[in-house]
Design brief:
The complex is a heterotrimer of chains A (400), B (292) and C (511). Chain A has 400 residues and is mostly helical. Chain A contains 15 helices and no strands. Helix content of chain A is 71%, strand content 0%. In chain A, helix 4 packs antiparallel against helix 12 and helix 12 packs antiparallel against helix 15. Chain A starts with 5 loop residues before the first helix and ends with a helix. Chain C has 3 domains: 69 residues, no CATH class; 99 residues, no CATH class; 254 residues, Orthogonal Bundle (MetI-like fold). The chains are: A mainly alpha (400), B alpha/beta (292), C alpha+beta (511).
């Protein structure tokens, strides 16, 4: 290799003054072609994604269109009307051309029922946890527990549904009273400890002791009550009494597990909303002498309210569309009953069970697509509104 | 010359004597007055004419007009936010990357308007190299960093690349320090070495002009010294424009200095004049440290 | 300081809604959520463990309708309170309880089956130490006593305890000892022996009804006496079961085949899905980050991606069924496989359509993960590239893409985790309980994209639906569920780990 002396390099070579003008961009050099090609490829990918979303909606609509614009029995109004046979009924198996058995009302009721019970269980858990981790907990606790909650998100819903159907449902039937008493015991825990002035300032780790203790207390209370009130056991009474009709796979079971499955999603959005409350507002409130609770209730919660609403909407969207848990634990009986002890059938479960077996483009097929469209649009609206709220919140916080 | 040509200081590249500009280019002749006759012909490398720049409505440059001499080091000084870096970035059209940027006026390099719609920006950027404030070596090996530009140009042969890498690194006064570890990651170098690596990378594509945007501001004094020495060596081969907020550095390194304030060019003259006998009060206040 | 109020805590009704109540409730909620997560994992673990843990064998003396008590050997599989309040036991046993007679005139033992025994009928139950459990090659279990052992025609002394016997063998340095130990020691499965080591040994097995049958040693997979087994032996047996859980062995080729096929199917489908989703997702993310700018198209696209993420998974299944299977698949069949019609080839559910639909489903995950990685790359890097005269695509390809690749990988791992657990859409797209053949085999074109396939999550769903209070069958369910959860959790954790490594690298870049 030739030895280059820096001096010779810099002095000996010609001092190149720009003798060539900048070439006009008319050269179709390979580099430019490659650049253009790449740009097209990438843009195609982006548009393909957009196209896919539109396609999903369009395809559902396309298949449901004959129903929307049909007439008489085969129209939208037609299917929702009930015949003289009484209650709205969904029984495709019994269909022999008789369309009255295709009333989707029980399915819609089922979906709403599942969502309601799920939110009943999930929202308090998610919001309270969010309040704790964003407002009360130390940074160290928050750092440790947030990822733990996200693990719940990763659990496949089929596993949760399996546990609901195979473990929770039989257990609940045999131990309904126990479940109730454990719930009561846990609910009494905060007021009791508050009034006795313990537990405040203790880390969440205290719960490792507190929850099992409360649960055990509830368990024993239930045992005692059961032996007092039911001589043959609660399960026996549930199956033979005439007051309450109890099916093992019911809304309570589904609601509990479904609600739990929605907790991570709702938690993260609620937590985002709560910790997004500008620090100086909180400091301002405390500076005028508000205690932690007053600051929370009068400053933090109102400011974060719309974010909490967004979390609720997202949770609703998730539980309305959830399939596996409902499929495995609801019994799939199309009833229009809102009670907690009866089963139900949701829209999503119906789609999963019946679509593989209907003939293509038959009436049943179109109706199922219409129901899918309904579900899609509902969840879409819920999610969009929630996103809008979050977007507004983010821009609002930035301004502050 | 026609009136049209009078409207723009359009100097031809083959002139070999001091400009005989028409009399209405008064400020132009002001500039040239300071050139010592022994100096080589005042070829203009970059000329900006009434250049104005807006970032999303916020003005950054206001009707800046100046000419950068070929083969010399020109320094831009001024308080922070005065638009020095923005002006620099106009010269290699890096401002194009910013969607919110609006530009009016002209920039000519070698007499050609570089904002013409059919200009090959890629080639422009190769020939007008830039070094940034914070060293930004690629997360690759030292060799790959320097070879990046030549590879893009189509140089494939390993021998040619090795050659190029070697003389670039020598030219940047880095070869002796890294010659044994060319395939180690560039991020392992100290920031002074990284900045010299970036300079080597820039000269590997054989540019004609080098734009240095506060190249020493994140370096320690020893590295700064090395880089300044380097600039001195590179001066005869490249036209260099350096932006700096260190006035002593400007005084040490440059031949011509432009003082800017709030987007306007306040004074542009040879470095001696600026630092010993500034014509504008603002310049004097800045030099003497009344504000900055 | 004088004048400052000192709060005195008293139990007043107001304290019910005071701050500390909320504080404690929120702590309670957090604790509950964590407790639920832990509980789920523990339940799965315990259920799975119980499936593998060796159970005691009982000897029941059963009295039926006035007759004399007869012995029944078996294990307890469940217990139930019948509607009239009485308890009954579910027993897995040889059907010697009299319900199904054994096939007469054969030398084979009848198969074990499940039988309900009312608890009142059980007069006595015990766990004799020498009661032996034997698993034969055909996968069946038998319970009874070993009466005699023969090696090479020679009858050996046998005290009734197999452990003692095997110890005796060890001491006697008998030629049969290795193989015998293989069969007796629960930790060693007969599979480990090659044919050459087989020595002709056999045992005489007597069941509860005093039927005696000679069983050849080569037909025996496991011999156990769990009632007397110490903890170490139980653990060894547990480990064996665990290890051989998923693998078929030479003698029981169907053992665990279902699960293997399900895993195969899941892995194949996920592979095909990754092939589709990673280029599409990666390029779309590059488009969003680099090329789309701030125009309306970029906003619309981001909205679209966010909405894709929120669509219920079953809707994807509906779309896949309608669009991919009927519309596209139907066309495929008309163009390429018209000779096979009306039997559909691609016009019905199969691996390809399932993979493509799941690719759509997991697209947002990949796009978001890649975009996140891209957004963390400092601008100065790109500018450095441009300043050297790189075109936009060169800057992307040579500078940004290598750094975004780990982000894409993270996204892919998360996508795979999601696809492994997602069952609902697959139900419409061609997943089956039992596949007659795997989608990959030796026939050209080796990868059969039109075949139906099995999926681990669906397998779990199907098992759960078929479950009928069978405590023992339940064990398998828990094992499968645990397997699925472990796979998904490992994937998620590795994605998180990868992401953290990414962040560290970027921090080095910025410094």
């Amino acid at each position: 290799m030739q030895y280059y002396d820096r001096r010779t390099l810099l002095q000996g070579s010609e001092c190149q003054f720009m003798t060539t003008p900048f070439p006009a961009n008319t050269l179709r050099s390979r580099r430019q072609l490659k650049d253009r090609l790449f740009r097209h490829v990438v843009r195609t990918a982006g548009l393909a994604v957009l196209f896919a979303v539109v396609l999903i909606f369009a395809y559902l609509l396309f298949n449901a269109v004959p129903l929307l614009f049909g007439s008489g029995r085969l129209s939208l109004a037609g299917i929702f009307s009930t015949t003289g046979a009484g209650d709205a009924v969904w029984q495709p198996a019994a269909a022999g051309g008789d369309i009255s058995v295709f009333n989707p009302r029980p399915l819609i009721v089922g979906t709403l029922k599942a969502s309601l019970y799920a939110l009943l269980f999930g929202v308090p858990l998610a919001f309270m946890t969010a309040i704790h981790l964003s407002y009360y907990a130390s940074a160290k606790t928050r750092r440790r527990l947030k990822p733990a909650i996200e693990i719940l998100e990763a659990l496949p819903t089929v596993v949760l549904g399996f546990l609901a159907a195979v473990w929770l449902a039989p257990w609940l039937m045999n131990h309904l009273l126990h479940a109730l008493m454990i719930g009561v015991a846990l609910a009494l825990l905060p007021p009791l400890t508050a009034s006795l002035n313990i537990g405040r300032g203790f880390p969440v780790g205290l719960m490792i002791i507190a929850i099992p203790v409360a649960a055990a207390a509830g368990f024993w209370a239930a045992e005692w009550l059961e032996s007092l009130l039911f001589d043959r056991g609660v399960a026996y009474w549930l199956q033979t009494n005439r007051v309450v009709s109890y099916s093992m796979l019911n809304a309570l079971v589904v609601g509990a597990v479904l609600g739990i499955s929605a907790v991570p999603a709702m938690f993260s959005i609620a937590e985002e909303a709560l910790s997004g409350v500008p620090r100086h507002l909180i400091n301002g409130a405390m500076a005028v002498g508000a205690n932690r609770w007053q600051t929370l209730s009068r400053v933090v919660l109102p400011v974060a309210a719309s974010g909490l609403l967004a979390a609720l909407l997202i949770g609703f969207g998730r539980v309305a569309g959830e399939t596996m848990i409902v499929l495995m634990a609801s019994g799939n009986t199309p009833l229009s009953d809102w009670g907690p002890f009866s089963g139900f059938r949701s829209l999503s479960a119906t789609l999963a069970l019946e679509l593989p077996e209907t003939s293509v483009n038959g009436f049943h097929f179109q109706l199922l697509f219409f129901l899918a469209l309904l579900l899609f649009v509902t969840v879409f609206i819920l999610n969009s509104v929630a996103e809008l709220i979050r977007h507004r919140l983010r821009t609002r916080y930035r301004a502050w | 010359m026609s009136t049209e040509e009078n409207a723009r200081p359009d100097l031809q590249s083959d002139q070999t004597e001091p400009d005989q500009t028409p009399s209405d280019q008064t400020h132009q002749s002001d500039l040239l007055e300071a050139v010592p006759p022994a100096e080589e012909a005042a070829k203009v490398a970059i000329a900006a004419d009434r250049l104005s720049l807006n970032y999303a409505g916020r003005p950054a440059l206001d009707a800046v007009t100046l000419s950068i001499r070929h083969g010399l080091v020109t320094a831009f000084i001024g308080p922070s936010g005065c638009g020095k870096s923005s002006l620099l970035r106009c010269f290699n059209r890096l401002n194009d990357l910013n969607d919110e940027c609006e530009l009016s006026g002209t920039v000519t390099i070698n007499g050609e308007d570089i904002y013409r719609p059919d200009v090959d920006v890629i080639d422009l950027r190769r020939r007008v190299g830039m070094v940034f404030q914070r060293p930004n070596p690629f997360p690759k090996s030292i060799f790959e960093n320097v070879a990046f530009g030549p590879r893009l140009q189509g140089v494939k042969s390993m021998a040619a690349l090795e050659d190029t890498v070697e003389w670039s690194l020598r030219g940047a006064a880095l070869w002796d320090e890294v010659k044994g570890r060319l395939d180690r990651s560039a991020l392992e170098l100290s920031s002074g070495q990284q900045q010299r690596l970036v300079i080597a990378r820039a000269i590997a594509v054989k540019p004609e002009i080098l734009l240095l945007d506060e190249p020493c501001s994140s370096l320690d004094p020893i590295s700064t010294l090395k880089v300044e020495e380097l600039i001195h060596d590179l001066k005869s081969r490249y036209t260099i424009v350096i932006v700096t907020h260190n006035m002593q550095q400007a005084a040490r390194v440059s031949d011509y200095t432009a003082f800017m304030n709030q987007g306007r060019l306040v004074e542009y003259d040879s470095t001696d004049v600026i630092f010993t006998n500034p014509k504008d009060k603002q310049t004097e206040d800045y030099i003497t440290g009344r504000y900055g | 300081m004088p004048g400052l109020k000192v709060s005195r805590r008293r139990f007043t009704p107001k304290s019910w809604i005071s701050g500390s109540w909320i504080s404690l409730s929120s702590k309670l909620a957090t604790g509950t959520v964590i407790a639920i997560i832990v509980a789920v994992l523990l339940i799965l673990l315990s259920g799975a463990v119980s499936y593998f843990w060796p159970r005691p064998i009982y000897e029941f003396w059963v009295e039926r309708s006035g007759e004399a008590a007869v012995p029944v050997h078996g294990i307890i599989a469940g217990k139930e309170n019948a509607a009239d309040g009485s308890a009954r036991l579910l027993i897995r046993s040889v059907t010697a309880a009299g319900d199904d007679p054994a096939t007469p005139g054969t030398d084979r033992l009848p198969a074990a089956d499940y039988v309900w025994l009312p608890e009142t009928a059980v007069v006595q139950r015990s766990r004799p130490h020498h009661l032996t459990a034997m698993e034969t090659r055909d996968g069946r279990w038998h319970w009874g006593y070993v009466v005699q052992l023969q090696v090479d025609g020679e009858i050996l002394a046998y005290t009734g305890s197999l452990i003692d016997f095997s110890n005796q063998l060890l001491a006697a340095d008998c030629a049969a000892q290795q193989h015998m130990i293989n069969a007796l020691r629960p930790a060693r499965v007969a599979d480990a022996c090659s044919d050459a080591e087989f020595i002709d040994w056999r045992l005489l097995f007597e069941d509860a009804e005093r039927r005696q049958v000679t069983v050849a040693g080569a037909d025996i997979l496991q011999l156990m006496q769990p009632n007397g087994a110490g903890l170490l032996d139980r653990i060894a047996s547990f480990a064996t079961h665990l290890v051989t859980f998923r693998s078929p062995n030479r003698y029981a080729p169907h053992h665990g085949q279902d699960i293997v096929a399900a895993i195969y199917g899941t892995v194949l489908m996920v592979l095909v899905m990754s092939l589709v989703v990673s280029p599409l997702g990666g390029l779309a993310a590059v488009y969003l980050h680099e090329y789309a700018g701030r125009g309306w198209l970029a906003t619309v696209l981001r909205v679209a991606v966010n909405n894709l993420a929120g669509v219920p998974s079953i809707i994807y299944g509906v779309f896949g069924l309608g669009f991919f299977i009927h519309a596209v698949g139907g066309r495929f069949d008309q163009w390429f496989f018209a000779d096979k019609l009306p039997v559909p080839t691609f016009g019905t559910g199969g691996l390809l359509w399932a993979a493509m639909t799941l690719a759509l489903l997991t697209l947002p995950v990949v796009i978001v993960a890649t975009e996140e990685a891209l957004a963390r790359i400092p601008r100065s890097l790109k500018e450095g590239g441009y300043a050297l005269g790189a075109t936009q695509s060169e800057a992307v390809r040579y500078l940004l893409w290598p750094l975004a690749l780990p982000g894409l990988l993270t996204g892919m791992i998360l996508a795979v985790a999601r696809a492994a657990g997602e069952v609902a859409p697959l139900m419409l797209l061609g997943v089956v309980k039992q596949a007659s053949s795997l989608p990959i085999d030796g026939n050209f074109p080796f990868l059969h994209l039109e075949r139906k396939f099995m999926h681990l999550g669906y397998y779990l769903y199907d098992l759960a639906f078929r479950n009928t209070n069978l405590k023992e069958g339940l064990g398998l369910l828990f094992a499968v569920a645990l397997l699925l959860v472990v796979v998904v959790l490992v994937l998620n954790l590795s994605a998180v780990f990868l992401r953290n490594r990414l962040y560290d690298r970027y921090r080095k870049l910025m410094s």
